[in-house]
Design goal:
single chain; 138 residues; mainly beta; 4-stranded antiparallel beta sheet; 8 strands
């Protein structure tokens, strides 16, 4: 008996699509001091990219400096837990260097790479001062 491959693919997608469409999550990253708080959705592709930034005056002149966060992550859910794999790049003005009459900002960069298991709805520490909470959204 011959069954067309297009029919087989359509049947598989018909069963797989509703399952994937229900897997929407939201993750919130915060620091202990509350200075950083980013919230981002994770859709059925299980991948998320988030960029937040601002252009701020560097403090001792008229130069503008880009600061902010870039977050890339993937999530894999199973039994009420989610495996988060990702990288957070943070950029900020850490201080200034004065050389004679010139003032230049010191750009601070921090890269946080993590791979951890997070229980839905529970706060999980990713590093010393960074925490994540992930919730399911339907």
């Amino acid at each position: 008996m011959y069954i067309p491959s297009g029919l087989i693919a359509a049947v598989i997608l018909a069963f797989a699509s509703p399952l994937r469409a229900q897997e929407h999550y939201n993750v919130v990253f915060t620091t202990k001091d509350g200075g950083l708080r980013y919230s981002m959705p994770i859709d059925e592709s299980r991948k998320a990219v988030f960029q937040a930034g601002s252009r701020v005056a560097e403090g001792c002149g008229s130069q503008l400096v880009d600061t902010g966060a870039n977050i890339e992550l993937t999530a894999h859910a199973s039994d009420g837990k989610v495996v988060l794999d990702g990288v957070i790049d943070l950029t900020s003005i850490a201080g200034y260097v004065y050389v004679g009459s010139l003032c230049q900002p010191i750009i601070g960069q921090r890269r946080i790479a993590f791979s951890t298991i997070v229980e839905l709805g529970k706060r999980t520490r990713l590093q010393d001062d960074l925490e994540a909470v992930i919730t399911k959204v339907n």
